[in-house]
Amino acid sequence: MTVHYQIDNEVFTHYIKKISPTHQVLATILDYNSHHPKGGMMIDPMQMQVLTWLARLVDAKYYLEIGVFTGYSSTAMGLCLPSDGQLHLCDISVTYTDIARKFWCDAGIENKIQLYLQPALITLRELLKDGKHNFFDLVLIDADKALLIDYVENSYPLVRQGGIIAIDNTYQKGKVAASAETDDSISLQVIRRFNKSIMNDNRFSSVMLPLGDGLTLLMKK
Fold this sequence. Notes:
It is built from 8 helices and 7 strands, in the order H-H-H-E-H-E-H-E-H-E-H-E-H-E-E. It has 221 residues and is of the alpha/beta class. Strand 2, helix 5 (94-107) and strand 3 (113-117) form a beta-alpha-beta unit. Helix 3 packs parallel to helix 4, helix 4 runs parallel beside helix 5 (94-107) and helix 6 (120-129) packs parallel to helix 7 (148-155).
């Protein structure tokens, strides 16, 4: 008989953080964001461990990120990518990305980074016009959830076959499983629609992982 043990996620997360080596700059960003009023916007460190592991698995060289905040995910990925790797980062906040710039310099990855300070949909369309079709190995979407489906659709032609699109916050603290009447925000409606449709989308091999606030991974077929 198979016995399944129910892991306490809080205890498990604490344990993983305790035993996992952390680059000093990443530790500094974690500490900074723990005191930042919007620190909850940062991606979960365990999610980032998975994404950097995947980046190595697929030999990622070209990375696209939508939603930079103070630079934790981009710094982690910049440290992971090879010396000639490229990070194309989309955000609209000068305030947040100025903080991120300092951390990129501290980590010695600033030369890998191209930052686009404009609405991400504009950048995605410009990248396609610039010949970045089937170019990126890995995309992380961690931005305005009301535009999630638009971000995925506009990222799709930019990702190579076998490349990965990762989406954060697809669990929405369990709200996606609650009755629709309890929260009718546009963002939640979009995420519910996305979650329902993406698992049947034949363009991708998809999985939703119970990490952080939900991490959905789409591998382009």
